[in-house]
Amino acid sequence: MKPTDHYLSIAELKPGSNRFTLVSPERGITVYKQQMRALNLIHSLRETDRLRRGQTIAIIGAGVSGITAAAGAFILGYRVHLFEKREILCHLQQGCETRWIHPHLYDWPKRGAQRQSAGLPFLDWRASTSADVVEQIMSGFNAIIARDPDNFQFIPGVNVTFPSRGRVKWDGGDKGEEAFDAIVFAFGYGVERSVRGAKSKSYWRNDSLNQIEPGVFAPATQTCLISGTGDGGLIDLIRTKINGYNQGRLLHEFFDGEATLLRGLRTIREKWERNAPGVEKKTWLYDQFNDLHRDGLLKNLLTKIELRKRDDTRSILNGPPRYLSQALTLNRASLLNTLLVYCLERCNAFDYVGGQCSSIEKKIAYIGTKQIKVDRVVVRHGPDTLAVCKRARFREGVPIFSGVPSVSSIGSGDTSRRLWPAGWWSQKAKYFLAGDRVEYVPAATLTVANTFVSTLADIIKLQHTKSEPRFRIALHRLIQVHDEEYFQQISRYAGTRQSGMPGRVFDISSGIVGLSCRMGRPVIVNRAGHFDEIWEALDLRASRAREVDTKVQSLFACPFFAPFNPQVPGGRIPLVLFVDSEQKNFFTNNVLRIIYGACKGFVENIEEMRRNRELHFIDSDYLGHRVRRSREAERIVRVYSSIVTDRGFGNFRKDLMFKSVTAFDMELNYNRNNEERG
């Protein structure tokens, strides 16, 4: 079964009904994962022809997943109706400044989890407060819908019913009834369950848990009960016990320089994902943390937590299991939060009380047979999604949320994993991107690449004082999507010809950039001689690039190398510089020396910026294209030997090799800038 068919078989709970859900019982109810599920659904509907361009789709719920699905459907040319019970979009997270949202933190310590940007094809955002993230998403949404408002209708403040198959009826602020080709339920998960005597406050409401009570007459200590051992409860416990807690700085503050610990944590996560023997044991995760502690890998982390431990609050964590060792599990919470709570217990920062919290009366919490006096109560028993399904009249969802067990591992049904191939959304879009295959480029990567190529272009121009050369320069990085390799343009074109947008992706098997990657050395092609034969052999059309301008007379590509690895003798290539010109003899020895010197200086400067922590490079499992000379590439070079050049690049492999950079995925180090300002 194709991945898209499989996805629809999960999302369409009643086969053939054309009613699909974005509300999943899977773990990981994060903003990013909800967006990914929405994009996967719309992609699957399009790829399977379940919904064709021009047909109508009703989306029930205008939260994050709802507006993401609406934007995706709109971009593909569907007519979209978006229904919402409240008067505004994303009402749950709007205005919340005390919650920090990070797109990939839930997947930590996987490589790439520290990336601050979501990296989505649209409605992209950077880690920030809930209020700011929603503003970023809504800004992108409004810009998309403005392209063709006749194909989109937002209907707020209404209740919806479903009088017959495919029909939606609504009343409230507006009234109407209409038939739709597909209905998507995106009403969210609801708010926290309550405890008798203590109405639960939504996770997304502002509070002051992370702040010490102000005033000289404030009590020396307060007792705070946090009931719930999912991510919401664990985060709120951490907020009460760590001074200056800021989730946006947490990874840098606690885990910078902890490579050995991170390797150990990745091993734990990998074991859990593949459901290794022993994972089913109730105390498995706690035992894994004990092993890290026994091996001395938590020493620095425990010291940092001890130094920042708050004494103004006596915190009590409550969960149904009898012991904390049974309550900490990756079925309910992330590895980061469970680890921090384990360390807080090691620092004697809180008490754990097992049992069911049944009620709160007059500041007395009743937990099993225990009665505990508390000053403040936080209830995090998870959202009541079953009640939401009933209110939304989503009858197919009622059995699922009436007692389905939690998904036991990420690998057994993670519908938030990307399904679409490289550049799919930009190719299929009706309203933007003009059909090029485009993928996300981090802003810092784009900035650094643009600065490099524009500076190099200006230097080359200065060498041609008597005539203006016609040329352009771009930098490409190597990326991987679904195990397929591509080279991606990460800068604007600099020079005297500047057409072509950043983000475009091309197959690595073709073009002069692809040949340079496969050969692992600089390549020059001139229009004179066997140009047409060479170009046909390079199979440029297969890379889906535009046709080469007939004015172009010469082309050049030069690879950069990842740090030396004796296990990869041919090396790995993370970057390639591309230059073309309208002059047959543009690449003179002088021009090649300038390019070579600039490339060498670029490598040195990037390494210096990394050492100075001006740039933060994201770890990746993909380390660049591995150089393996294919028979076809060797044949091309043998027949057209003039295209491979060392002219002016005698020590290119040594001088153009990074010492520490393995993937050109970077971000500005905001934390360092904040430290300097402080």
In short:
The protein is of the alpha/beta class and 678 residues long. 32% of the residues lie in helices and 19% in strands. The chain is built from 20 helices and 28 strands.
End-to-end Cα distance, whole Å, is: 55 Å
Task: Sketch the major β-sheet.
Answer: 7 strands, antiparallel
Percent strand: 15-25%
Overall helicity: 25-40%
Describe the overall structure.
It is a single chain. The strands form 8 sheets. Strands 18, 19, 20, 21, 22, 23 and 25 form a 7-stranded antiparallel sheet that branches. With 678 residues, the chain is of the alpha/beta class. The two termini are 55 Å apart.
Task: Map the helices and strands.
Blueprint: H1 3-11, E1 19-21, H2 31-47, E2 56-60, H3 64-75, E3 79-84, E4 100-101, E5 128-129, H4 130-145, E6 152-156, E7 158-161, E8 167-172, E9 176-179, E10 182-185, E11 222-227, H5 231-241, H6 250-255, H7 259-273, H8 284-294, H9 299-307, E12 313-319, H10 324-327, H11 335-346, E13 350-354, E14 357-361, E15 364-367, E16 370-373, E17 376-379, H12 385-391, H13 424-428, H14 443-462, E18 471-481, E19 484-489, E20 494-495, E21 505-507, H15 511-519, E22 523-526, H16 531-538, E23 554-560, E24 572-573, E25 575-581, H17 589-611, E26 615-617, E27 625-626, H18 631-639, H19 652-655, E28 666-668, H20 670-677
Parallel strand pairs: 1-10, 2-3, 2-10, 3-6, 11-12, 11-17, 12-13
Antiparallel strand pairs: 4-5, 7-8, 8-9, 14-15, 15-16, 18-19, 18-20, 18-25, 19-21, 22-23, 23-25, 24-27, 26-28
